[in-house]
Amino acid sequence: MRLNVFLNTYGNRLFVGVLEEQNNRIFFEYAPEFIGTNIPLSPFMLPLKQQVYEDEKRTFDGLFGVFNDSLPDGWGCLLLDRKLQKQGLSYNAITPLQIDKEFTGDIELDSLSMEAGKILQGNASEVLDTLLSLNGSSAGARPKIVALVAKDKQTLIHGSLAHENYEPWLIKFNSSLDDKDIGAKEYIYSLMAKDAGIDMPETYLFPSQNSSGHFGVKRFDRTAEGKVHIRRF
Fold first, then answer.
1. 59: containing domain
2. pTM of the entire structure?
3. Distances (CA, A) of 124 to 39, 49, 83, 120, 137
């Protein structure tokens, strides 16, 4: 398997290099033009040199941390596992996999929340592909979606990059261990954080008929100019 790696910075898309898997070993090589940018993506593990790299310690199954950090975990991995089961495949037997499917139309949060609950309980969901698409490689164990939200907060549609009157948001659903007020509590905590002077994105409690609401936060790493590379520590 061969995969091209790109770095997105406010609409500027740079070709970083190539990842390739051979016999369960993963290799990486920088593109010559990226070395010339002097951008230190991973200065200790992947210094900007023209050579083929391999993580022999296999910390992340052979994938260097700077790339593994872009993969989903928790909820995203659970969705992928359910998708593979439907195809008769095993999650433990695959290497990084990309599933690309376009969806259109409005999003109804309570319906998706109930479908997410089915998956958490180990049951099938008729909208598995939709949930997988809306996950947007977001991290964490809680079920969530990435969607475009109208500025009046009344309409949600598929997508992840800001355009016209829509902005990208991350919206959480309750897990099986959460109480029905978890969304409202997280929203209140976000307001307290702002009152304490913490700089954070806009938050909102999306209404729900089944709970206190769905907590949402506007994505700061998606702009009208494009994606913004964020490194987690």
1. 2-68
2. 0.59
3. 44, 47, 10, 10, 21
